[in-house]
Structures are given as C-alpha cells and as structure tokens.
Amino acid sequence: MAPALCANCKTSRALIIRPKNHQKLCKECFIAVFEAEIHHTIITTSLFSPGDKIAIGASGGKDSTVLASVLKTLNERHNYGLELVLLSIDEGIKGYRDDSLETVKRNAVQYDMPLKIVGYDELYGWTMDQVVEVIGKKGNCTYCGVFRRQALDRGAKMLGIKHVVTGHNADDVAETILMNLLRGDLPRLARSTSIVTGDATSDVRRSKPLKYAYEKEIVLYAHHKKLDYFTTECLYSPEAFRGSARSLIKNLERVRPSAILDVVRSGEDMAKLVPEEVTGISQCKSQKVSLSSADGEDEGAGGCGSANGRSSGGEMAAMEKKLQQDETASSREIDMSNPIASGQNHDRLIKKTGPIKPVRIESSKKLVGQTLGTCKTCGYMSSQEICKACTLLEGLNKNRPKMEIEIDVEEEESSTLRRRMEGVALAAG
Amino acid sequence: MPGEILAQNSSDAPLCQRCGTEAATHNVRSEDVCSNCFSQYVQTKTIKRMETYRIRGSSAKTPRKLLFPLSFGPSSASLLHILDQHLRGQYDRMKRTSYELYVVHINVYVDPVDRKDADEMLEKYKTRYPRHNYAIFNLEEALGLDGIDWKALGLENSDSMAPSAERLQKLLGSMSSATSRSDIVSTLLARLLVDVAKRNSCEGTLFGDSTTRLAEKTLTETAKGRGFSLPWQISDGTSPHGITFYYPLRDILKKEIMSFSTLTSPPLTDLIVQPHPTSQISASSKLTTIDDLMAQYFESVEENFPSIVANVVRTTSKLQSLPNETTEACGLCGLPVAVGTDGIHGWGGDQNSESRPGKDDTYHGILCYGCSRSMNS
C-alpha cells in the first residue's frame, strides 16, 4: 500500500495525525496550518495594532515558548508591526525555575527579544518556597497564581507595556470552564472564556492567542520546529478542582478529539447566559472584552506545569463541608416558611437563609457586580478595595493564612464561599 | 462527611437522628437515619417538587394528564413508585386525584429479543401499579416526525420505502463515533416523547433525573458543545417544545435512589434493569461515550462530595436564556439556536476553513453546534 499523502498539499507523505481533528498532514503543512490558525485567531479578534509593544509571559515551558516562536514568525510574515518582549517571573521555587529561566534566557537570544525577569521576592518580599513554609503544600497554588498574575502585569507596567500575552491553550481554557462549573463559580465562568481580559480603561490587557490551540499540537509544533523549551512540573500540588477537571478533559479528548474545542465553545456560549448582576459584564458588550480579572485566579494553569490530579482533594472536601452547612441552614429555613412552589429555583432559598447567615444576605443584596478600581495598599488595579495579592500578603505577614475575607460585603457570593472554603482547607491542613 | 457524624455520636450503634428509635442504617447528607426515615426523606423531597399538582379546593376537576417516560432504570422505577403512592394517598383521602400518569416506555433497541423483554417488563409494572395507563413506542417512530429536518441529516426520503427500524439502524450505523450515536439516540428519544405527550394531550412530562444525573447532563452537554442549551435542559419549566418538563427527583442523589429502590416493600428489584457498572468504563475503548465518562465521573464525585454535585445543578440553573435574542429551532434537537450561531463552522474556534476535513457542506439546514458536531464527526 502506498504511504498516505498529506491531506493538505497532497504531495508529501503524511507524518502527523492532527490531534484536533485526526487529519493526516506532512510536517511542513502541519507547521503552516498551526501558524495559520493562530494568525486567524489574532486577525479575527483584532488582538493587536501596529506599533503595539507586547510582553510575552515566558516560563520556558512549551506553551510560552511556542507562543514566542509563533508570534515572532507571524509578526515578520504578516507585518503586524509588533515590538515583542519576553517577560519572566521567578516565583522562587528552588530547582523549579533555575533551569527554566536558563531556557528563557536562551530563547531571548534565539528569538532576538529583550527579556525582563521579575522575582516574587522583589515584588512581594516572599519567595514561593517561603510561602510554602508557612502555608504548607496544600492551597499554595492560589498564592502562586495570584502573585504571578500581578507579577506579569507589574513587570509589564515597569517596561511601559500595556498588553501581556500568555500561553494558555485550548486545554487550559476547557479545563477552567469545567472547573468553574464544578465549583459553581459563574462570574469566573463568564470571564474565563474571553480571549482578552481588561479593556481600554485597564493599565494592562491580557490575552491568550493560543486559546484555540490544542496542547498536543503545541507539543508537536515545538517538537517539529525543534524549539528549545523546558519540561517540568510544578513541585507543589494542584488544586483538587483543577486536577479533577484536567483528567476529565484528557479523557474527553480521547473519546472525542473535538471535545476540547466543544467545551470552549460551550463556555463562550454560557458566558452570555450568566446573569449580568453576577458578572458585571453587560450583555451588549462584546463577549471578547470582559472585566479585568486582575485579582482573580481565572486560569491558574499558566506556569503551574501539568497539574495532573494527584492532589488530596482537600479543596473539594472543604467546599463540600461548606455547602452542607448551607444546605442544613436552608432546610431549617424551609421548615419554618411556606412551602416553596415548584418551578422556583434555589436563589430564593439562598436569600431566605438570611436570619441564619446574616453575612450571606448582605453579600447577595450587594451583588452589584465588580467595578475596577485600584488597591488601597499597593495602588494596583483591583475590583476590591484591597487587592487579592495584598490580602494574601497581609495574612502571610501575620504569619497565618488568609482569613476574615468573608465579611467583605463587596465580594460576590460564590467567591466569598470559595474563600471561606479555602480558609477551612488551610485550617484543616 | 459521613464518618465525622458517626464520630460525634458517642454510642457504638448510633440511633436514627430523626426518629431517635430505630438504628441508623442510612445517611441523608449529614444525618444518619433509619431506613424508614430515609425512605420518608426521599418521598417527601420528591412530592415537594410536585407541589403544583397537589389537590386544591373541593370541587372535582379533571385530573391533569402527565407523560411519564419509564426507562426501567432505578430512577424512573422509584419515581413511579413514589408518585403511585402519592396518587393513592390523594384518592384515599379525597376520592379523586389531581393528576394522572401516562406511562410510556420507548424501545431504543431494535432487536426483537430486547423488545420482548420490554413487553414483559411493562406487564410487571401494570400488575404492580394498575392505576395508570401504559404504552410502548419504538424509537424508529421518531423517523416519522415532522419537526425534524431530515434533509439536514441526509435522510431525505432516500429509503422511505425501507422499514423504519432498518432506516434507524442505518442512520445510527453511519455515525462515526459512539458518542455521536448515543447523542442522536437521546435526541430522537426526546423528540419522540414530546410528540407522544402532545398527541395524548399531556400538559407536562415527568423525568426521573436525579441530582447526579442532572449534573452529568450539564457537563455532558457542555462537552458536546451544547452549553447554549443548558437553561432549557435542566430546569423545571416550559421547554422550547411547548411542554412543561418536571424533574421531581432533582433533589435526590443517584445513590439515594439506588438505596430507596431496595427499601420499598416489596423492593423494586424485579422492575429494574440495572445499569452497567461505571467502573468498567475505559476512556480508551471505542465504545465509550462522553455520557459514559460523565456518569463515571459523577458517580465518584457523588461518593465523597454530594453537595458539590448538587451545587453544579443549582449553579447551572442560574443561567438565563437571552430574552431578546432571535432564535431558530435546531433541525434535529429542536432547541433554540441564536441566528448565525448554528453549525460547527464560522466561529472563533473554527480557524482553518481551507484545510477543513470531512464532508463538503452544501445544504445543512439549521443544526445547533452540538447536533452538527454529532453529524459531522
């Protein structure tokens, strides 16, 4: 039997089965198709304007290395007119960053791009190793994610750059969508699917040009382009919800390769169905631009290596406990009040828990959505009075885990819940 | 956590936390209860969802007719048992009932042996619950439905001479994956049920989906690209098909249903075709579907984190359909699709139309993203 020919050029021998759709391609066509798809994403979402200075969040891992390589190629091929800079964060995890930062330094030479490295210690006074000493190995991903997110933005600001691109791929986005469904976080569900976060009013916008690119194709691209990247996993365990969602995504992909893309599509559609009072995003605004998630942990995957679900489930257990308490409270309430007619949903129940949980009723009444301001402590953009990083730091500096946040009436319900839940996890761990 | 509760009770054989007399044998979320109180809990939770159908006033009204799809699984069997008792209670007290059930089983298998089994099974139900009307339909009857855009499915009259069972088999055989096949089957099943309900002037349909099943459905539909349809898929209320959908078991976990089905007297065991254990599901099998994966996943989540399962359903029911959006019905599932968002092409994630593999798209009619995916991959 003759060898299969590339489905695209129909001349070369097919060597690659595309993970995304099982199309058989030759190496050259795969690379061309992969790049063309990223170009398509950039063009159709008007991601960049000529003259833009763009910081590439570079971890030395496959995603950000491929992003840097593809952006350099496309910038030259299609005359985007972009000035590209590599921006790296040093979390201060011994043995984790040493090698990957070396990789980024080589990338800077290979791609002829300037490189800026920002350390957690200089930004926050804490390295991740020091944080772990205080917090333990559970629940520290929150710290790492929050700190990194701000670190990228702060680093960008230092360099006078208004747009940071990250290597989040389709798998990451799909995983985040499932994770937010699992933990019942509609505001984040609504935000996490946008290709761009932050709008004209924010100092720094963030975007993910690889949003529709499959992780497996990113690996293939890096391999066939012989890119210099560093493979490692974060030494600290991933959050249970993310780990759980991740293994689910991997299984879904095996059963139906399009499933990753299909989840992303579902997420985009569902973002429009999240009630405005929950998100603060007006439906008439394009879904592509959403409120900045400066202090969120919307996509903790970036840089957390492959968190492949080897966690203890402490986060899920804590949330379970919290939900059970709420359930008990609301069932007591139902007993005292009129029977709830069928067809009404549980919002009503939650509001009725008022007498038992006064904090809750406060927060659901003030569910006016988040508005972007600046943190009182550090002046950095935040939707709360004190940004999440500063809140976490305050806890760290007092040498105890974060707490008390649940009294914050500005907070939207589910994230209050999540924080309480984190508090429980930390106390238990 | 069940263990913690037990630890709080200092005695070795804990008593039921509700009645305080019987030994606790079951667990209701955070309470250890006896089997009686457990059954009571399941029944009360279910009947509460039937609030719309309690008897009001004294004047005799014609009972309202509701379609009851019966799959012979533990959930629909248990729901039928509970509702049968509910109706019996109404009749004993008031000499009338507020609603009546039209119990329908749909044969999804075309094999005559399977169909004979179904007939025998339904006879057992008729004997045990004689109050209701029963009927069996075959899935291929869906092929005669007007509301489906057969042309979009490539089934346009081509074999209309062939027996419908054969045509159904051919249609399902042409699907490229187990997931697509099961997706089309459940879609046709849903369309057929709505049609049966309308033809028999039922004002609503009672589905036996448990909390766990609804959570599964949420993630299954999400994974199939039907996130847009969730506001209509898991909430009680008027469906886009014009029939009200109810899920009276929405507050009961699957494992609770399983226990309940063994506690009735006599147990429902004879009336139930047990589902395959999800532990046998492997993601590397060609026969495994997204539905299977989700069932397996939520079975494990439910084990330790039942409230998280419930929270998924609660959260999803907060999603709201967009009021001012112009929609058209999907030619297959019939759900409303926002104009311009049909099909799997032409959105951000469809980036490379030139190198697109697969069928040439001449006429596709309006299919939602999820149905389009099932027809095209």
UniProtKB/TrEMBL annotation, chain A:
Q: Which domain of life is it from?
A: Eukaryota
The Gene Ontology CC terms held by the record are: cytosolic tRNA wobble base thiouridylase complex; mitochondrion
Stretches the record annotates as Disordered? 290-346
Give the Gene3D superfamilies listed for this entry: HUPs
Where is the protein found, in the record's own terms? Cytoplasm
Span of domain tRNA(Ile)-lysidine/2-thiocytidine synthase N-terminal: 53-233
Q: Which UniProt keywords apply?
A: Cytoplasm, Hydrolase, RNA-binding, Transferase, tRNA processing, tRNA-binding
- Spell out the molecular function terms from Gene Ontology: hydrolase activity; nucleotidyltransferase activity; tRNA binding
The question of whether Cytoplasm is a record keyword is answered with yes
Q: Which residues form the Cytoplasmic tRNA 2-thiolation protein 1 C-terminal domain?
A: 373-404
EC numbers on record: 2.7.7.-
Q: Name one GO biological process term.
A: tRNA wobble position uridine thiolation
Q: Which InterPro entries match?
A: CTU1-like_ATP-bd, CTU1_C, Ncs6/Tuc1/Ctu1, Rossmann-like_a/b/a_fold, TilS/TtcA_N, UPF0021_CS
User: Pathway of this protein?
Assistant: tRNA modification; 5-methoxycarbonylmethyl-2-thiouridine-tRNA biosynthesis
Chain intervals with Basic and acidic residues compositional bias: 318-335
What function does the entry list? Plays a central role in 2-thiolation of mcm(5)S(2)U at tRNA wobble positions of tRNA(Lys), tRNA(Glu) and tRNA(Gln). Directly binds tRNAs and probably acts by catalyzing adenylation of tRNAs, an intermediate required for 2-thiolation. It is unclear whether it acts as a sulfurtransferase that transfers sulfur from thiocarboxylated URM1 onto the uridine of tRNAs at wobble position. Prior mcm(5) tRNA modification by the elongator complex is required for 2-thiolation. May also be involved in protein urmylation.
Hey, which family's this protein in? Belongs to the TtcA family. CTU1/NCS6/ATPBD3 subfamily.
PANTHER family attached to this UniProt entry: ATPASES OF THE PP SUPERFAMILY-RELATED, CYTOPLASMIC TRNA 2-THIOLATION PROTEIN 1
- Can you say what this protein is called? Cytoplasmic tRNA 2-thiolation protein 1
Q: What organism is listed for this UniProt entry?
A: Glarea lozoyensis (strain ATCC 20868 / MF5171)
Automatic annotation (TrEMBL), chain B:
Q: Name one GO molecular function term.
A: sulfurtransferase activity
Q: Return one Gene Ontology term, BP aspect.
A: tRNA wobble position uridine thiolation
Provide one Gene Ontology cellular component: cytosol
Q: Which domain of life is it from?
A: Eukaryota
The answer to whether keyword Cytoplasm applies is yes
Compartments where found:
Cytoplasm
- Does the keyword section mention Cytoplasm? yes
Cited InterPro entries: CTU2, Rossmann-like_a/b/a_fold
Query: Keyword set for this entry?
Result: Cytoplasm, tRNA processing
Predominant localisation class: cytoplasm
Name the job this protein performs. Answer: Plays a central role in 2-thiolation of mcm(5)S(2)U at tRNA wobble positions of tRNA(Lys), tRNA(Glu) and tRNA(Gln). May act by forming a heterodimer with NCS6 that ligates sulfur from thiocarboxylated URM1 onto the uridine of tRNAs at wobble position. Prior mcm(5) tRNA modification by the elongator complex is required for 2-thiolation. May also be involved in protein urmylation.
Q: Which HAMAP family match?
A: CTU2
In the record, the note on similarity to other proteins reads: Belongs to the CTU2/NCS2 family.
Q: What is this protein called?
A: Cytoplasmic tRNA 2-thiolation protein 2
Source organism lineage? Eukaryota, Fungi, Dikarya, Ascomycota, Pezizomycotina
